[in-house]
Amino acid sequence: MKSFRQRKEDVKQNNLSNQKQMSTTASSSSSLETEAEAEAETVYHSKDFKWETLKEEIENNPSYHYHLQPFHSPQHQHHQQDSKAWQNFHTRHSSGKFFKERRYLLKEFPELVNCGEGSKVLEVGCGNGSTVLPILRGNRNVIVYACDCSCEILERAKEFVGASDLASVQQRFHPFYCDFSATGFPKWLACDSCRSFVPQKQHGCFSDVDENDRTHSNDLDLLKKSDCCLGGVDFVTMIFTLSAVSSRRMPSAISECFFVLKPGGLLLFRDYGLYDMSMLRFEPGQRVGSREYMRSDGTRSYFFCLETVRNIVAGAGFVELELYYCCINLVNRRNGKSMRRVWIHGKFQKPI
Ligand SMILES: C[S@@+](CC[C@H](N)C(=O)[O-])C[C@H]1O[C@@H](n2cnc3c(N)ncnc32)[C@H](O)[C@@H]1O
């Protein structure tokens, strides 16, 4: 068993080697971690090929036709099984070896750098902190709340962020447990009255947070100091998390994001796009819905087209600011094969 000091040193080394790597290549393994690695290493460019060209090619290739068949009765497992699958995933991959900082993120979402002092960000499904760390690094004035449905990965996130030597990180990083698609976000983020109307922080509204909830002690400390909810956040980042949620629960999951945002706040979105290479690797038996798949470990993956995202966010009340496919050609370092990756980029605003 490694001591905490050794573990922290491992994490530091890992962070350092991540910072040194600047490559647009990826391994051909289909594992989630390698996908994350490939995406994290992508330098900022998004138009290597036209999505319409890829679409035409896939739809005219008989070997891909099973991906396009209608799926009338989506198989669904209980939401507890969904989060259990992620908890098991993180337990199996607890080394943290695959931590990859998403360096491109601040270029895609410069608002995270330019926002005012004390701006609040909620990172949903934070994993090991790949998205949290560049935000904290890129803006010293920002406070990041980050949730995940796995306590184990929250511990890893704390280690990664803690090993980064960022100034006053304890005050600026607040991880907490939450299965947001099942229970919604805790009321200490935005209480019922703030959810319905948040012009400015209203003082004197008491949170109904249950202290028996599995919230992080930092958060409870924060609450005790203010005796009130936070009054919502300025940004919600959802980076490769919505695709992990059952498609049936997506509309309510996005509505939750809407409720915890302040008026004028932004939902910053990135996720798998329709006909991404990783979608085409799923076998027919792994389909659990239209454009929805389940890996052998029980974790889900959905592949979005622009219309689907547009409908879900509009249904929740958001105004669309940006929405497009990022189409990136990655080249396998070992065999030189190219892989066409498709990701969705979206920026949506809660009306003022
Ligand atoms: C593919 S990872 C993305 C991690 C991170 N956002 C990033 O940029 O690397 C998806 C994460 O969402 C978490 N997750 C999945 N379903 C969730 C849910 N219902 N509530 C909270 N977290 C969830 C998983 O545990 C996992 O850590």
TrEMBL record:
**Where does the record place a coiled coil?**
none
Biased composition regions of type Polar residues, renumbered to the chain: 13-22
InterPro entries, from UniProt?
Answer: METTL2/6/8-like, SAM-dependent_MTases_sf
Do you know which Gene3D superfamilies this protein is assigned to? Vaccinia Virus protein VP39
Enumerate the PANTHER family for this protein: METHYLTRANSFERASE-RELATED (PTHR22809), TRNA N(3)-METHYLCYTIDINE METHYLTRANSFERASE (PTHR22809:SF14)
Q: Name one GO molecular function term.
A: S-adenosylmethionine-dependent methyltransferase activity
Q: What is its EC number?
A: 2.1.1.-
So what does this one do? S-adenosyl-L-methionine-dependent methyltransferase.
**Which keywords does this Swiss-Prot/TrEMBL entry list?**
Methyltransferase, Transferase
Signal sequence region:
none
Query: Region entry Disordered: which residue ranges?
Result: 1-39
Taxonomy, superkingdom: Eukaryota
Quote the biased-composition stretches of kind Low complexity, using this chain's numbering: 23-33
Entry's transmembrane regions? none
| Amino acid composition bias (Basic and acidic residues), ranges on this chain | 1-12
Q: What is this protein called?
A: tRNA N(3)-methylcytidine methyltransferase
